Amino acid sequence: MRPEPDLFEEIVRLRREGIPAAMATIVATRGSTPGRETMRLLVLEDGTFLGTVGGGCLEAEVYETAKLVLRDEQPRSRTFKLTEFDSPDSGLLCGGEVTVFVEPVTTPALWIFGGGHVSKALCKVAALAGFRVTVADDREAYANPARFPEARATVAGEYDALVAQMPLRANTYVVVVTRGHKEDGVVLAALARRLADGGQPRFLGMIGSKTKRAVLFRKLREQGVGQDFLGRVRSPVGLCIGARSHEEIAVAVVGELIAVRRTGQDAAEAWARRLRPATPRPRTAVTELDAAEAE
Questions:
Q1: So what's the pLDDT on residue 38?
Q2: Which of 55, 114, 217, 268 has its CB 3.0 to 4.6 Å from that of 260, i.e. a possible disulfide?
Q3: Same domain, 258 and 138
Q4: 2 belongs to a structural domain
Q5: Who has greater pLDDT, 81 or 235?
Q6: Range of the domain at 21
Q7: Residue 68 near residue 108, CB atoms below 8 Å
Q8: In the predicted model, is pLDDT for residue 85 greater than 50?
Q9: What pLDDT is stored for residue 248 in this prediction?
Q10: pLDDT tens digit sequence for 224-256
Q11: Which secondary structure element, helix H or strand E, spans residue 22, and what is its range?
């Protein structure tokens, strides 16, 4: 019988391969408990797990909490009272108390569709912020390791095929920033078909102005792309901080990625509203953003 792999070596492997996982650690105990401090349970996205926090009903509750953490990347701390009075259906009669901290332990994966100037800055800033970046373009000259040294990977090919091969996991973030409206539409249409089969990225955004979004979304609806999918696309993407240069736009976009990762979708939207000025952005900012999409 093969021994279980070392838990920390497994975490290194999962982070290297970009596979989502959550680790539960007993951080405090009181009285008689089945688990002791520093006992750990590692739960993977596919439902498999490694380690233990004491087994039984306690472990089942911790396992369910880990699945929630995998879904939204938000750490949680839970305290369990192991008594028949507090949990009459659990059979827990130890009489003690256990506090468990559950945290995501894998790196978020960002797929950038498009290899232009904004993408170069976006890849660099996102990598510094801890994202595993893959850059995809339909031209090899714009998606290669020399052009994107900070990227975890670069892939070149038809956008339909690249979308089909993209791993779609709980920690997947997607930003569409190709060289033009046509290519953006190709990527979004391919993503709509992919998501129709199940699954959903943690974040899906497209760079550009509100005018671009309205025109492109109308064309996609005419092609049969549903409003449910289009409603998931965050566009214009990026916190409204008056960004104009490629680098400033990259900071704004990564700021929104971080807000979603650390605070959740709803909180990130509220944060974006707080940053949105009371009056419309100057026209120069909009035209600069549109111009920055071009190579």
A1: 82
A2: 268
A3: yes
A4: no
A5: 235
A6: 7-104
A7: no
A8: no
A9: 96
A10: 999 999 999 999 999 988 999 999 999 999 999
A11: strand 21-30
Tokens coding 4: 């279980």
Q: How, if at all, do strands 203-206 and 40-44 pair?
A: unpaired
Looking at residue 145, what is its pLDDT? 97
**Helix, strand and coil percent figures for the chain, each rounded to 5:** 40, 20, 40
Q: Do residues 122 and 239 both lie within one domain?
A: yes
Q: Six-digit token pair at 224? A: 């049969």
The number of domains in the chain is: 2
pLDDT of residue 53 exceeding 60: yes
Within-domain flag for 231? yes
How far apart CA 100 and CA 76 sit, in angstroms, is: 8
Same domain, 181 and 261: yes
Angle at 49 between CA 45 and CA 50, to 5 degrees: 135
The C-alpha angle 65, 68, 70, rounded to 5 degrees, equals 115
Residue 175 lies in a domain: yes
pTM: 0.82
Report whether 77 contacts 99 (CB < 8 A).
yes
